[in-house]
Structures are given as C-alpha cells and as structure tokens.
Design goal:
This protein has helices at 54-63, 65-70, 76-89; strands at 24-29, 35-38, 46-51. With 90 residues, it is α+β, with helices and mostly antiparallel strands. It is globular and about 45 Å long. It starts with 23 loop residues before the first strand and ends with a helix. The structure holds zinc ion.
Length: 90
C-alpha cells in the first residue's frame, strides 16, 4: 500500500512522536550556521522539530540528533543553550 504524501509530517527528531499536547518546538539552522529555537516557527532556514520537552532535548544531546538533522557538527555549548531556552518555554 502506498500513501500519497502531501505535507511532510512534523515529528520529533528524537522520539518520532507527532505533535503532542505539549506541542513541538522548531529548531532552526540559518544560513550562517547558527542554531536556535524558533517558537514562531517562521524563521528562515532548515528546521527540525522536537517535543517541547527538555527530556527529548536531553536525549537529542546524548544521541547528537541535531548533528544528523542538520548535517553539521553541533557543539555542546549550542546544545546547552537550546536546553536552557527550551526549559524556559516548558
Ligand atoms: Zn520527542
């Protein structure tokens, strides 16, 4: 059975959950290679979604999920900043 894909599903890059009650947070990598949270979901750049849940981001840090999502080396400093910021949105 083949399904026709219209809109790409927004899924958490860590747990593969679709939008939950908590919702997903968009993380963006812009042209300059900066990585930041995008609560407006409108920033330009390549986006990846993650649960608005620091537990998922902590797993992403362990597995370096953002390195894979953005195909670049993401420093632990960047991960830590994302975590701090995400915790402020929880
Ligand atoms: Zn998740």
């Amino acid at each position: 059975m083949q399904k026709i894909k219209k809109v790409p599903q927004r899924k958490c890059i860590v747990c593969q959950e679709r939008e939950s009650k908590k919702g997903l947070m968009r993380i963006v990598k812009n042209k300059e290679g900066q990585i930041f949270l995008d609560p407006t979901k409108k920033a330009n750049g390549r986006g990846a979604y993650i649960c608005k849940d620091s537990e998922c981001l902590k797993k992403a840090i362990k597995t370096k999920a953002l390195n894979k999502a953005f195909k670049i080396e993401v420093s632990s400093e960047v991960y830590e900043n994302l975590l701090k910021e995400l915790e402020s949105y929880e």
